[in-house]
Predict the structure.
Amino acid sequence: MRKIIALFLCSVMLVCAAASAEQAQNGKVSIGVISINGAFDLQCGLPEGYSVKPMVVKQDTLIAVLLPEDESRPSMYLSVAFDETYSDVDRMNDLDEEALELLEKTYTDVDPTVELSYGETGLGTRLLIARQSGDDVTNYIDFLSIYKGYFIEFIMTAGASEKGRKLSDDELRLCIDFLTDLDFIPAAGSAAGVEYAGKTYPAVIGVYNAADNTAAVTLRAPVILDRETADALEVGGTIALGAENEEIYAVDRSEDGYVTVNDEIELRPQEDGSYRVYLYEREYRTDLLTVQAFIPETLVFTDNIDPESLEPLEEPLRLTAADFTAELESGEGVGFAAENVNVTFDENGDLAEISRVYVPWQ
């Protein structure tokens, strides 16, 4: 059994506090948006008598639980998590036998009694199916697949009032029907040339792939709270920091309008009445989207950091795409992950300029 089921079973008691899923326009339920290797709104159909509760929704991970109204019916758990090692895998159907054997070992290494087989969704996507065996009892069925670098794992366990009951083939079919109906809908405005064409974003630049001359570029944005939200912050509540919520144990409001939460999060008032969020004197930013961006020869790399002293320059250096990729490959210098980078896209959504500035924490 893969490690994810342990997380599910430990987290199921938290479901009451989880966010509710929203109804999508197509009649399905929208569970949440993931945004690595493309941005996708995950939408599903629900079996009759079930509701879905998102437990974790992050840029690269979504975890949700499907709960039955009748406790004798099985509970089901969905995990969608990006794995960079499989970023070029569109579907599990693309894997060879050696790669499949490696996935099988993630089950057998943990549970040598597990029974493995293969199936497919109604759309022909391959599924690795794991069942717990022994004494004619099946405590769980675990389905694993891959879509665009995301591992999709769907687990069914016996109902709360019938622990240890063997799960039936009809219940297995219920899982396959759910996975057949699970849609990765491109999130509105997330495609190249639509979301970020002609715009500039703060960014973190990660791994460079010399084979296709691309780099992982994570676009970021400051966290901004409106006045109504800031005024409502109180001890015992939570503050939303991008995709994460933090429980509030202290709130201090100063006469000049500043709000300090938990002694470390500072809300600074702006002229329009909103608040920008700072953490330890650094503006708090949240990830918007990660793209595998091509590095064109026309890219301009503007560097405001002296390469030898690492101090700020009076006049920035105007460098080339070759200079930029050479530093990415070498791993030398201050890098591009210290919140000190801005990226600008042209009107076609292609990288036009990368500007690096000095920050004292680089």
